[in-house]
Amino acid sequence: MAVSADYKVRFPESDDLYSILATEGIEFLLSHSGEVPLEYIHGKTICLFFSANWCRPCKDFTPELVKLYGNLQNRGEELEIIFVSFDHDMTLFYEHFWCMPWLAVPFNLTLLNKLRDKYRISRIPSLVPLYSDDILVAEDVIGLVEDYGPEAFPFTKKRKEELKAIDESKRVGGQLEKLLTHESQNYVVSRNGSKVLVSKLVGKTIGLYFGAHWCPPFRSFTSQLIDVYNELATTEKGSFEVILVSTDRDSREFNINMTNMPWLAVPYEDRRRQDLCRIFNIKLIPALVIIGPEEKTVTTNAREMVSLYGSRSFPFTESRIAELKDSLKKEGDSFPRKVKDKKHEHELKLDMAKAYVCDFCKKQGRFWAFSCDDCDYDLHPTCVEEQEASLV
């Protein structure tokens, strides 16, 4: 993620900007329709946008800032962004400025150096709000905009703290509809494209499944989760639902994902995908977050539960996992530590196995197995009993 100047700052009033412009003899700003007198920006919230045409993070971020600017203009916010170019020549300056709906200072390397030094710009893109000394600006304004879009305005430390508090409320136990809806987006979609209202999911145990088709561990875990989902669809009678929160690189990958999944998804073009990744601090995929029927977060580590215990881990609570561990321990204590199977030449030892295939019945096993230390041979505990019983 591109970031802006990485320090806590207090900015002077925009009068300092006017003073710097005056020392260079600049009496106007640039727009796509011509020159704009400096008086035009008086009384507005001013943000300096330091960027360059040659900078890939700048070009990636600019469309996001264009959306934010348009949204805030439509809301009637008195905001003006002023582009300060780090480009090497005027041709690149105008090429970059062409995609921006806001103003720019004239291309001037001396002016750039003065503004860069004044506002201590160490990297680009940087977005610098100009406030009086008694207003603290948030650190990493670029990151704040990337995370929250227009909701980040007015880019102050106070606003950032408010947004973080809202995220925390949603993460710990906000209502499902507050967590999964945004503006007019109040639905998720099935793989055939039909819409399912989030309100219809209230009261169910919800698994938010974060991942992408390009990720091999995600594809591997998806197969396991599908088995669990189908089992619970029968045993729990529809009380469990999974919603894909895609981190795919494009809609094509997202569509491939959905064709292989029996559950729902947040639409690819929906901002809620980014919001949910931020709220639950998703850094690694796949990840499975469980929201309980009481609309509170049960666990952010359901992937491990499903990997270890499959459908038996439902409803994915700590108490349920404790029950499973106790039950498995008692089950293990009931088995002998070693057995001698007449179909195998070596002694078999009791072992805990995440998953295996029994060499007698050829079915998949989980948890307890009798295994050979000398060769790749495993038996279900019940299969050992069945073989011994058949030979009596």
From TrEMBL:
Q: Print the keywords alphabetically.
A: NAD, Oxidoreductase, Repeat
| SUPFAM superfamilies assigned to the protein according to its UniProt record, in alphabetical order | Cysteine-rich domain, Thioredoxin-like
Q: Which InterPro entries match?
A: C1-like_sf, DC1, Nucleoredoxin-like, Thioredoxin-like_fold, Thioredoxin-like_sf, Thioredoxin_domain, TryX_NRX_thioredoxin_dom
One Pfam short name: C1_2
Record carries keyword Oxidoreductase: yes
Q: Which residues are in the Thioredoxin domain?
A: 17-171
Regarding protein family, the annotation reads: Belongs to the nucleoredoxin family.
Protein name (Swiss-Prot/TrEMBL): protein-disulfide reductase
Species, as recorded: Camelina sativa (False flax)
Q: Which gene encodes it?
A: LOC104721715
